[in-house]
Sequence to fold (525 residues):
Amino acid sequence: MDAKFVYFNVLFVCIVLLWHCSVEADHVSCSPRYFGHGSVVCVCNATYCDTVEPNTRLPRQTFARYQSTQAGDRFKKSTGKFDPMHIEKIVLYVFRTNQTRYQNIKGFGGAFTDAAGINIDSLSTKAQDNLLRSYFHSSGIEYNVARVPMASCDFSTREYSYDDTANDFNLTKFSLAPEDLKYKIPFLQKALSLGRPVRVFGSPWSAPAWMKTDQSMTGKGSLIGEPGGKYFKTWALYFAKFIEAYASHNISIWGLTAQNEPSDGRIKNFTFQAMGWTAEQQRDFIIKDLGPLLEERGHGSVDLMILDGQRALMPYWTFVVLSDPAAQKYVSGIAVHWYTDRLVPPSFLDDTHGQFPEQYIFGTEACVDGIPGSPLKAVRLGDWSRAESYARDILEDLGHWVTGWTDWNIALNMEGGPNWVRNFVDSPIIVNAETDEFYKQPMFYALGHFSKFLPPGSTRISLSVYGSTALKCEGFLLQDNSVVIILLNMSDDDVTLSVFDAEIGSINGNVVPAHSIQTVIYWIS
Fold:
């Protein structure tokens, strides 16, 4: 056989294999495992972890569709062409004029709690890398928001503050805890190195016990004295010291919330770290202490968010704080949690935005927990209904002026902890330290249908549905002139519709399967 012929054949095979490997490197499929809760998790370890097929720019009149389903699809990608006219009985009309544009998106992410860090640290180094890349890398769902508890919370293994020395009003003994140095900062630093710029914001659960009326970080208690007094001045300094301590580790703090769930600390015998505030106290603290102190120490550009609690409190709390121009000048946003959203209509978001449109609304905490005494455990591996709860709430929030959504712990163990008061919850990623693997829950993919495809600066646009359908949807115009439409079908039946853009044409025969989430993307220029 001719040597040259053999050489070129071997070379051709090598080229094909290299091409195949490069294509495969762009996308690694889910390794599914079923635990009996309705859908699958995707299993990752030190050597294998699924990725998201790249969202590459397509020619005009071509679209991409990413789909996740209860049946097992995870970001399944397909492409197609637009038609001149729509033909289905259900039509989703896309409007993107200047008059039909709404809020800009700030981003999506999760919290770097002690518990999250402990679980990530329990994995081998390569498995740790795969977990963080799953969240923050371009091959993952590209989080760009990270929440950090200021000192301890329930998802710690103990109570601690950054200065437990009584009467240290100048905070000369202030120092980060071992948990910050081992479980928060190293993994934050890694996340910051992986992809999009990450907006890091801090939230306090409680002041040191010596600064509080109940001399405890838990229970019913608030700061001693009144705004303007020495305890409030010291507490304001505590915020600045936190910013400066993290800056010394090359982590810039983008934002702060003035207090996590300020109503918790007004509940008798509240079980974990909390501190009580009224709206009037928070207003006066911002005016007399926190706002001026942050400016004085060079942190005036840090976004300050008020409330950081439930939707039901928003209109009243916001009115009390922001009706005073002296407070309003220091406040960038209103932070909201999701825990009462099924009981409180989204009109509360509309009312809040209508009162103070210059301050953004930002979702800062959400998770699914178990019910004590019931067989419904905190962690349910593969529970698709929890993914739907996440997607439904995000769509509802975005449709009513919210600019982003932050999940709670980015990783928990098989029990939903650790948590020093056994307040276990679920998480989008569950770590199994015994097998050096972690499980991506359906919630992870529900979040990714937003975080991956709605970078900061995306603008919500108007959609109108013609025809009877239970679909939930929102649309967005991105800075690269792409349109992103997110569709949620929580019903037991497939839905077929057309997506119509007057300038581009129609996506006909778009099937949204039962119990699925779709992200549809196309470019207008």
Q: What stands out?
A: The first strand starts at residue 32 and ends at 34. Residues 3-26 form the longest helix (24 residues). Confidence is low (pLDDT under 50) at residues 3-24.
